[in-house]
Amino acid sequence: MPLLHDDFAWLRQRVLRLSGLVLEHDTHALVETRLASLVREEHVADVTALVARLRAQPENTPLHQRLAEALANHETAFFRDASVFEALRTTVLPALLARRGRTRTLRIWCAACAYGQEPYSVAMTLAEAGLLITGWTVRILATDFSTRALGRASEARYDAREVHRGLTPLLRQRYFRQERDGWRLNEHVRKPVEFRPLNLMDDFHPEAPVDVIFLRNVMIYWDAPTRRAVLARVRRMLHPDGYLVLGAAEAAPLAEDGFSRNLIGQTSWYRPSPLPGATAPVEDTSRGHSRPAATP
User: Fold this and answer.
1) For residue 45, what is the domain's CATH number?
2) What is the pLDDT, as a whole number, of residue 281?
3) Domain span at residue 19?
4) Kindly report the CA angle at 114 between 51 and 253, in degrees rounded to 5?
5) Is the pLDDT of residue 10 over 70?
6) 138: enclosing H helix or E strand
7) In this predicted model, what pLDDT tens digit does every residue of 129-158 receive, in sequence order?
């Protein structure tokens, strides 16, 4: 039985609360296709029966989590948007290394990391810069709301198609070893990456400030109120002189979100700036003086 109008409306509201994903009105067929595997796993007749089962359960049950995961887009690749990693290598990293010379610590957060290609691309970039074998402490926090995606990401195993998307032959040879069922990333590149479940819809609490936040190709699926709320939480996680990078197709943060845009090479990076009404300058706690947010 095709997805009924009332069931689709219920799905739209439930998924919006669970993951922030906005299902457009004309996506009935796409939703049915993506839920086909969940229909089979639950041994129900069709998507209508699946929605009936979902309606009968509280929102915090595993089936609702699997619903959100089934409808999420986990498409990604190594070094996706190569210009971002070029800017990281040539401009962002040197600037941070100069400012973190006293603590010799770097913290990077890859939000919505899917199957791990992005945080591992960051780790390879740092390895190429020699930061994984020097006296620096490097932590790459990789989060996603999908526990299934995180499970696969932590294994760091990829098939031939995946390792040929974005990886040069040199990087593949240098950082991967071929196994019977695919390719696996070397241990010294996996080691600084910590995977952790985190739903960006939740009011997560900041830990130690991070220096760089990758929040790419996820906000395009959200509505404006969700983007504003998540950006406010993300800003609390970012070091006062840190960097935020978004996907190329995503709307830029507004001034009232507390970010200023910086063009680095061919990519836009965002720096924390004083929120409207703030009187104190942004303070660089690592060097003990204020620094204009617009400088690299």
Assistant:
1) 1.10.155
2) 38
3) 5-71
4) 95
5) yes
6) strand 137-144
7) 988 878 899 999 999 999 999 999 999 999
